Amino acid sequence: MEPRLDALKIAPELYPKFLAVQKYVDSCGLERPLLELVKMRASQINGCAFCLDMHTKDARALGESEQRLYLLNAWRESPFYSDRERAALEWTEAVTLVSESHVPDEVYERVKQHFTPAELVNLTAAIAMINTWNRISVAFRAVPGSYRSNLHEVSRSA
Questions:
Q1: Helix 14-26 and helix 32-46: axis angle, to 10°?
Q2: In angstroms, how far is CA 29 from the centroid of its own chain?
Q3: What is the CATH number of the domain that holds 11?
Q4: pLDDT tens digits, the chain, 158 residues: what are they?
Q5: Is residue 1 in a domain?
Q6: Structural domain contains residue 2
């Protein structure tokens, strides 16, 4: 696969703004391993190989198990995710597929049992941001494989 273009080099003023939002999301107080699962699930739905490569590497660096990574696409049938993670994954799917379901009330009722209002806003911002990255990466054919995680530094200092 060949990349179409490097959108972030062509519009260099855009990249720092995206990074600022991403930095906020990554430090908003939600558990970092949870955020990586959310990023991976949205990327699975959107078929974003670049982001899947990146976030599986980050999840591993944070200590995520291979078993949970392999079963993420079938999280409903797997006993390896907490109720909070399940709520976040269901919310991720509903928000990512907003044009199909318009985020049903019953999903909102379930997720709000596991997240404070502020956490829910931050979780939704995290989902929106990964969907933004997915769309840029898929549209312009970002090639996976070159990303190297630096989160081993985060997990040691956390």
A1: 130
A2: 15
A3: 1.20.1290.10
A4: 788 998 888 999 998 999 999 999 999 999 999 999 999 999 999 999 999 999 999 999 999 999 999 999 999 999 999 999 999 999 999 999 999 999 999 999 999 999 999 999 999 999 999 999 999 999 999 888 788 888 864 444 44
A5: no
A6: no
